[in-house]
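Dear colleagues,

For the upcoming journal club I promised to circulate an example of a predicted protein-ligand complex. I picked one with phosphoenolpyruvate because it came up in last month's discussion. The inputs are reproduced below in full, followed by the predicted structure.
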Amino acid sequence: MARLPFIAGNWKMNKTVGEALDLVRELKGAVSGVKEVEVAVAPPFTSLHAVHKELEGSSIRLAAQNLYWEEKGAFTGEISPLMLKEVGCQYVIIGHSERRQFFGESDETVNRRIKAALAQGLRVIFCVGETLRDREEGKTFPLIEKQMEGGLKGLDGQGMGEMVIAYEPVWAIGTGKTATPEQAEEVHRFIRSKIQKLYSREVTEKIRIQYGGSVTPENIRSLMNQPDVDGALVGGASLKAESFSKIVRFKEM
Ligand code: PEP
């Protein structure tokens, strides 16, 4: 079964509303006419509404970078799944390594967030990935397995084919060090085999696995040539329309 490539830009804590609108306007032009690649942008919360309005009529999807699992209440500083739906988000990134590293997210809180997102009909980009130390100690696979089991705990196969898993080796994020296509494929294959153990063959074939970690216009093609790499979650290179659109247009390169 052919999986639709999915390229998403994680803007992290970058861009004011004005800058976000400039970027997305340029991006709309730069990716117009691209077929058979799904594209999404994940601006900070403050720009979601304005970017959603700007994207009306475009095929670029809107993603948030995080959410909180409660519906509403006394949770100062948090954003609920419904609030994200209301401003036009179709996707939400959950469990990014920066959230795990700087904001204390655990597999358990990632799991709560995933459940809350799915309950509200948001599609999830679920991030997993090992640190350099894990890799050097030969713990990559057990760590990814633990993150997957923890993050997906209690979720049956219902709608799981719609989920996106982003494999993001922490040592490759924002460092300019990309995993080789072979290293990426090895872990992507492992993730898919784990999905097969947890769910059905149908889910396994459908689920898309993105690679993330210093993706550029120069390395995207060789990564996308791998059979289990179905797309990319792009940080730094998504902040400019020129580089992000080249990544989106990887088939033409
Ligand atoms: C990311 O933040 O998800 C990421 C992959 O960042 P970068 O592309 O800058 O390494």
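Two points we might discuss: The chain has a mean pLDDT of 97. Residues 10, 168, 173-174, 212-215, 233-237 surround phosphoenolpyruvate (CB under 6 Å).

See you all on Thursday,
B. R.
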